[in-house]
Amino acid sequence: MINTPGRLEGATHHFPVRVYFEDTDAFAVVYNARYLGFLERARTEMMRLLGIPHAKMMADHGVLFTIRRYEIEYLRPAALDDLLDVRTRIVEIGGATLVGKQEIWRDNTKLVHAKVRLGCVTTVGKPARIPPAFNQRFTEWSGCE
Question: Which of 43, 46, 59, 72 lies in disulfide reach of 114, CB 3.0 to 4.6 Å?
Fold first, then answer.
């Protein structure tokens, strides 16, 4: 069994995040840049649960994912001590790119909506195709073609 936080439900990964004092600004709401960290952690744990941890990608295939583009919309603020659910889905798979949709929820309220485009690159930063085994795993899980 893989020991990592979060869980897979269908084609969505759920990752719990508690808001700590260090995440907030002077008004005790989450500082905008902290949401990016929450989203990054969630994607990392999603990949780990799928059997594609970053360290394995680098060691076995000499590749990793880097962020090419982020679109983020802040709908409502999160506050100190909130328990958040970061939801991640892969919505598009290319030869060298992945597109993910991510949302941050508190109970039944969506707080953040984001779209991220990831590019596969070598460990020296050159574009690379996603290794076939990883591409197959993303496709099987997400249902994307």
Answer: 72
